[in-house]
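pinging the channel bc i need a second pair of eyes. not urgent but kinda urgent?? the chain im working w is below, pasted from the shared doc
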Amino acid sequence: MKLRKVKSLRGTLTVPADKSISHRSIMFGAISQGITTIKNFLRADDCMSTLHAFEALGVPITVDKDNISITGVGVNGLKAVAEGIIDVGNSGTTIRLLSGILAATNFTTVLTGDASLKKRPMDRIASPLEQMQVQVTGQKEQVLPPIEVVGNPELKPITYVMPVASAQVKSAILFAALAAKGKTTIIEKEISRNHTEEMIQQFGGKIQRQDKMIQLTGPQQLTARQVIVPGDISSAAFFLAAGALVPNSKIILKNVGINSTRTGIIDVLKAMGASLTITEVDHKNQSATLTIESSNLKAVTVSGDLIPRLIDEIPIIALLATQAAGITVIKNAEELKVKETNRIDATAEELQKMNARIETTEDGMIIYGKTTLHGAKVSSRKDHRIGMMLQIAALICQEETILENAEAISISYPNFFTDLDHLTKGES
């Protein structure tokens, strides 16, 4: 795909629905009792992988133009899949969280995915689930997919100290804990996104948190409810960056999720001096309108407990840093090495092709700002967030950019290029 520089970006967008909440709304609806209705579900590849997985497990799901309706069957109502295999495509969220749900079944399931997913380690979920008396096996020491989950209806509660800050690992344990008899305790390394904890309560469950300690006593029966999914701040982040970087720009983003465990990108933009305002805050649905305008940015340090709140936004933050005054340091982000790609190396290497000055470290990057980027032949590496970041970078390059594997962007944002085109034309 050929990409070109633009003079300005102006207009109003409603970004796609939140990916994390869309995944979980299907999962909670499936294991609850009653009919769950989901409004504003993200119909992107990853989330549809979750939907199809639960259809394969015997959960009645109706998809119409506006809503998704799920007739919950409870964990005990899930049925073994024909031939025993579920393909979850590129979705790490699906394979990890679904493993926690399958832990309490009385059958065996094999979970597989595409070539990228088969490189992502599952030992981080296998270890705690095995402590709960679930057999999880995969390829090599890292338990790479395809993985086999041998369900056990007699799960044991555990106390687990998280070795990494990962919402996916935490969520897999919590889903299993809902079916285990007794109290499960999770102690987080750093507080990660809390959608699973919040949705347990929304579906009528009970869970306690004290600082970095989470406790859940099972078994629990959940009750269906209506879910309205807010816009995904991880998708909004690319347009927030575009609005800050492209001259003469003003972009208004409606209905963006502002859950406090996800708003690290807002904190970083403010620290960099971006012209960003937050209005129309809806506290019930944790959403707001974000307005971004062209900005003079300064370097920052991104580290510590901020990292889990923006782990998916680090590639676009790296791009912002190339245009900021000073040297930006990103550290404590080793989790990026086990995403769809090694995002530390992928971000640095692709931006270096465009003349960015970036040094990689064991757990992050050092980025030198005020660098003139040039068009180049770059690749998404089949990673949606790398692909979107490179498209935004191309907007400020004098020369033409060629983006290979642009189709990967449909994993989370099928209309990304259409929405960007509206902004280049100044449309609302």
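so The chain has a mean pLDDT of 95. and The chain has two domains: 2-16+230-424, 19-228. — does that match what u expected or am i reading it wrong
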